[in-house]
Amino acid sequence: MDSEMSMTSQAAHGHHEGHEEISWIRKYVFSTDHKMIGYQYMVTSLFVALFAFFLMVLMRWQLSFPGKPIPIFGPILEKLLGSSMAPGGVMTPQLYNSFGAMHGTMMIFMALVPALFAGFGNFVVPLQIGAPDMAFPRLNMASFWLFFVGVLIMMVSFFVPGGAAKSGWTSYTPLADFADMGPGFHPIFNGQTLWLIGMAFNITGSLLGSVNIITTIIQLRTKGLSWMRLPVFVWSELVTAFLLLLAFPPLESAAIMQLMDRLFGTSFFSPEGLIINGKHADISGGGSSILWQHLFWFLGHPEVYVQILPTMGIVGEIFANNTRKPLWSYKVFVYSLLAIGFLSMIVWAHHMYMTGMGQAVTSFFQIFTTIISIPSVLLGTVLLLSLWGASIRFNVPMLFALAWLPMFGIGGLTGLPLGWTASDVVLHDTYYVIGHFHYMMAPASLLALFAGIYYWFPKATGRYMNEFLGKIHFWPTFIFFNGIFFPMLVQGFAGVHRRWYDGGAGWQMAQNVLWLNQVMSFSAWALAIAQIPFIINFFWSLFAGKKVTDDNPWQATTLEWATPTPPGHGNFLHPVAVYRDPYEYSVPGYKQDYLPQWESDERLNKEGKLSQVSF
Amino acid sequence: MEIPYTVTARPDTGLYNAKVGIWLFLASEVMLFGGLFSAYIFLRLGATHWPHHILNVPMGLFNTMVLISSSITMVMAWSSLKMRQFSNYRKWLGITLFCGVLFLSVKSVEYKDKFHHYGIILNSGQEITGHLAMTEEEAIHSDVLKIKPDPENAGDFLFQLKSIFSKPEGEEKVLEIPKKEIRWWSNFVPKYNTYLATYFTMTGIHALHILGGLLVLGYFWGPGAALYRTNPEHLANRVEVAGLFWHFVDLVWIFLFPTLYLF
Amino acid sequence: MSEEIQTEKKRIKSYFIVFGFLVILALVNVAVSYLHLGGMNIAAGLVIAGVQALLALGILMHIFWEKKTIHHLIGLAILFVLALFLLLVASYFDSIGK
């Protein structure tokens, strides 16, 4: 991983003024430079995303052709994980469960959030606010390495006796309290315990990272950059960081309590009279599994906004840039972000309608769940109306950003029936739920992730990514995402349960929709193939992509484009100041259709046109 | 490359970076302990039985005093630094460190006491607590548990105060209970019941915070204090930030003490 | 700078007054826990601890003199921790089969 990254920043080195000689290891591995840490986060999480996607690619085989050996990869699995996990290349239920749990965990906590929040956050936020670095560079390095150790622990857990955690990404108790225990399991080096330890590292890293991002945004905004002049991406990062900061710690305490349950035999989450394998569990009892669910979803729900908010920011940036006009309403956008952030903290128990909550409490959560859709719709509306009357540049970042909009729409609207008890009772734990949240987390989040990569790649590396390969990447990705997730909504209505390994009796009643399993699986495999152009494009462009000739290749207005390309240590060659709102595109009376934030009025008026970016 | 506002305050917020950072960190700490306290509330609401005054209140009170004192000495250490009285700073911070170590020592004595204290729940649901009249090894293998039950006034303040300094005197009856009449027995370790699970978890995490605070403060008392010669204001800021963490940890104890010892 | 030192000198007195209050309130809290007030025991204990917390937060941690950014941050944390407590308690009491 690091060798790849070192290449990325070889170019960055070119701009370095060379007065501080730091060793290779301090520059590329234990770096305190926010840009390098951003690349580290991005590359690590893209790798984790690919890995976690691969787990699902294998699971889709089991769902389409239950009990048949997996071609090509089956024997490899058998060799790697032992014949008890994949005898003859057939996926066992345990392996299916652990792949499912790890797919969710890694995708959410170790791929999407680090890429969108920490990867882009580290690279873009200090640049967009005109700061030389993050407020606490060494803390920043510590966050990355805590995250990285968390990833390593998760990866290693596949190879301990009994395999990785199997209790779902939610680790519901009391199942998770007693999973991976007993004969054949190590007391500490077992799947579920390592899951908890890995999560503790990951959470700690996230917390330090969000402290850093918020402090940076509050303290290091450059002269003239008042709150209502901040680019929307910075706003989205700010709200996201607050969600992580305040919602993650209760899960950390819950993880500690589950560790206590597993290591010291306490009963935080185990009720009295619990029977395991036909025997009374040797515990004091008195705990509550509902407590785990509350503490888990107190994070779990804000977590989905942690993923979607940065993508809103990215899409907002790219929309403004490529529609060549200001966002339809900056203020509505920002206040919607804040409202979503605030409300997302008090809707968590809509994941728990089936736990026997009473009517008053469910009403509370239904009302707020419905209310939170208002700012979400406002946000979508702002973006949609921003397209009105624009002469859109259909470059690759814009294609991805445009595709985000309908995916976000489907993901959001399919969520409403799950927010109301009457319909949730029917749809709970079916593939409908999977379809719904994947529309948010897979198509929406990932399309925006790609959009951001294509958009900021020229600034980070000094080279464009290839447009043609980008388009080859875009169309199949967009189509096959829908090929995977739309049929899930259909299957869900037919009552197909979300966690079953081979369908069991449930599939007997869902004969009509079972053929969709093949549609979804082939779409998933096609989606995997569709990522090859991206991987080729990424590495090829790194070394041989078209060179950027201007520091502001997209003719954008925000501050990250005022830096040299790629930015050196300390970012800006001269102190920058901000003179205007973030998206002053197509302002009448100027020769150019964009007025960068860093250009003063006098300068613009006097010259009648923009000066070049180089001072 | 200089990062702005590491020592001086940013004009519009009036704050230097680390102060924003530490308050954000403390906000997340509020939520961390909030998660633990909410677990305590939730489990206690659902509990059929919750022990009262089972911990040694005088010891807890003493530790509370120790932490309160350390809070004052901490703020005095920072104050001295602000007034550029370096030797006073070292003195006050030294006392703070001493208090922190004292707190942890008392805490570990309390933990050890609990590990030698036993509880038995009979099939009838009745609970007997006391000290074993046999070794732990014997207790595990024997069919009968011999236990000296706690006196009725074991929850009294004076009794607990005396028990710190001397073993309770006088003849004591020893109960012999066959194991087949026992539903659940163990010493007072986390798994004994939900109350002890919350007690050990919450105070354990709190103690880890104290330990972390001691490491940081120890650094500023020792090698970190060298910064005074080059940039005393920067050192004052660092000590203020470390102090805010220390105060917060004391603040958590202010809530832990009544919730775990008194209610 | 010297002005800052002057205010600091004035504050030292308040630190020791706070110390006195914290000690007394801790003693009161212990004493109250031996009275039999039923459910009021917990309420009284929490109120006393709350006052102690306010004193420590306000004076020892300088919240009373702190900038508004800090007030917002700590306010946000307290708001959400209360939301967590209240909603958990509410969902405990309002559940089917209770």
From TrEMBL, chain B:
Locations listed in the record: Cell membrane; Membrane
Membrane topology per record: Multi-pass membrane protein
Top-level taxon of the source organism: Bacteria
Heme-copper oxidase subunit III family profile domain span: 1-263
A Pfam family recorded for this sequence: COX3
PROSITE patterns tied to this protein: COX3 (PS50253)
Keywords, in A-Z order: Membrane, Transmembrane, Transmembrane helix
GO terms under cellular component: plasma membrane
Molecular functions (GO terms): cytochrome-c oxidase activity
Primary location class: membrane
Gene Ontology BP annotations: aerobic electron transport chain
Transmembrane segments: 20-43, 55-77, 89-106, 196-221, 241-262
Family from the record: Belongs to the cytochrome c oxidase subunit 3 family.
Name assigned to this protein: Heme/copper-type cytochrome oxidase, subunit 3
Species of origin: Methylacidiphilum fumariolicum (strain SolV)
